[in-house]
Amino acid sequence: MDSQPHVTLEDVAREAEVSLATASRALNGTTKVRADLRDRVLAAAERLAYAPNAHAQALAGGAHRTVGVICHDVSDPYFAAIARGVMRVADDRGLLVMLASTFRDPDKEITYISMLRAQRASAILLVGSGFEDREWGRALASELEPYRRGGGHVAVVSRHRSLRVDSVHPGNRDGAAELGRALLALGHRRFAVLAGPRVLTTVVDRLAGFRDALAEAGVELAEDDIVESAFTRDGGYEAMRTLLDRGTHATCVFAVTDVMAIGALTAIGDAGLSVPEDFSLAGFDDIPVVRDLTPPLTTVALPLERLGEQVMELALRDERSSRSRVLRMPGEVVLRQSTREIEEETT
Fold this sequence. Notes:
Helix content: 40-55%
Number of domains: 3
Order of helices and strands: HHHHEHEHEHEEHEHEHEHEEHEE
Strand order of the largest sheet: 2-1-3-4-5-11
Strand content: 5-15%
CATH class of the largest domain: Alpha Beta
CATH architecture of the largest domain: 3-Layer(aba) Sandwich
């Protein structure tokens, strides 16, 4: 019998009084779970009539022509542009796209995957950074592995080290390194970085690439020069305010995403300062709005819609292989008026 539509993996975890990750692992049997916890989860699933293999059962009678897209925040222009690319390919193939935002909550990602399995989606796309969290990675794999064994297709955008699935990797590390070199060439030697949470692989990769480039030139990026905040416009605003309150000596600020840079630009203006006269400012992604800012934003341009098209194409590949395929899509540094050349300092 199929599971009741309103019963989710999250319901089972709550009923069994265990974490979402433990419930997923116990039900899917892909990793070891303590016997007493497994028994509690299985008993809760039976009481709630939850069927973890709904997708495999559904495929026997024909899967829906539906693609599930799970992203961090569809209101963010980065994800909206990728989603447009996904939808363009899906429309050409006569597929319906279901879109969900996790707001960077790893548990929500696992819950949505479980729901898409129950909804008999023929493909699941994960669009956005993975998490540097081994427990989350195991739980994610325990949901996706049986889904794939049942005939479901999976593809991801960005680095997910715990998954062995087809993926499209934006040039996060290399692009940030190239940006660092371009800013060094303008004469800057004192930098600050507005970073999202370092549990996100995208943040880790962009920060590492930028640091690499500075280190090549003998420039150190100290921990005090890095401010972590939410991966949003408001997060960028607050991070920039923190830098200003510290009395930063940076001449150039790198925000690891354009939306954070937009918030930083406003914070600089609210403090009675200006870009690029007081601070040069750079972002990453090249979302469309940054060309219309005053001043226009220096950034690393990624082919966002193309990323969406490519991940959708990967998910729809007919050939099946035991080896995952990785497509790498480099970024390109675009220098605009938010950064200026300064007289090179001696260090």
